[in-house]
Amino acid sequence: MIDEKSFAGRWILVLFAGLALIAAVVLAFVRVGPSPDISIRPAAPVIGKRTPVTVEIREPKRGLSRVTVEFVQGSRIEKLAEKDYSFPSWWNYWGARTVQDTITVTVGRETIQNLQPGQAGIRVTAGRTSTWLRNPAPVSREILLPVRLKPPSLQLVSSQTYVSQGGSEAVVYRVGETSVRDGVRAGKWWFPGYPLPGGVKGEHFAFFAIPYDMNAPDARIAAVDEAGNETELAFIDRFSPKKFKEDAVDLSDQFLGKVVPEIMSQTPEFRDRGGMLDNYLAINRLARKLGAGFPFADAPAAKQ
Length: 304
Prior knowledge:
Elements: H1 4-30, E1 37-42, E2 51-58, E3 66-73, E4 76-84, E5 100-107, E6 118-126, E7 139-147, E8 154-156, E9 162-164, E10 168-175, E11 179-186, E12 189-192, E13 194-195, E14 203-209, E15 219-225, E16 230-234, E17 238-240, H2 253-266, H3 276-290
Parallel strand pairs: 9-17
Antiparallel strand pairs: 1-2, 2-5, 3-4, 3-6, 6-7, 8-10, 10-14, 11-12, 11-15, 13-14, 15-16
Helix pairs in contact: 2-3
């Protein structure tokens, strides 16, 4: 004899399972990815020499499908980056997907040919995942940035500047309003400028030194704006080379044998170079960098 209650219960379960299956199939047919979140972050508020732009795209549900980054100026559109992503089929709820990505591009006169002053846009277009029945339009976001190609103005105020190799001096100059960083560049050294006390608007001064190993007047006043545009100005009227005295220090085996093992024993992070002289040279270089806090800082400098 069939239990009517048990039979009815099984049919109810089958009915619910069937309805759930139909709902899942219908949902799979019509469900599309939501609008991706797009973030565009330029490294500077203007476009000039080189401006890095970081783009972040996020779609945590069905994942990303395609992203395009474009440069837009007037009727000109130039593709900067494009990426396609693998995403699950419309019927697959658990497949692998890319839910977030970061793309970095660089815009400016060094990367965009015939860049014009005015304004330009960075446009990001992110595709939405589709189904068999639905193919939604992509999502776009664009930011506008001013394009600045003219570097800051720079004018020398000091009348005469005489310097010697290894010496120091000061220079006075006038810099334009768009400058965000100015000073004197001497070889690899940078000496920042400061507003001149009592001077007119834009007048700055800088103390600078000529490195002892610079045998030519390779020093310039420089001014840079926030877009990376830079102006340089030569200002040295007379440069006097100078020959510096050189000397040699004799290092005896007795001296090396006395100081090197002691320092190595007190410096466990120091790596043995395989020889007493090589160890001395390595320790000496480290001591010169660290200064008085290092126990070997007062030892004679050695030449290799």
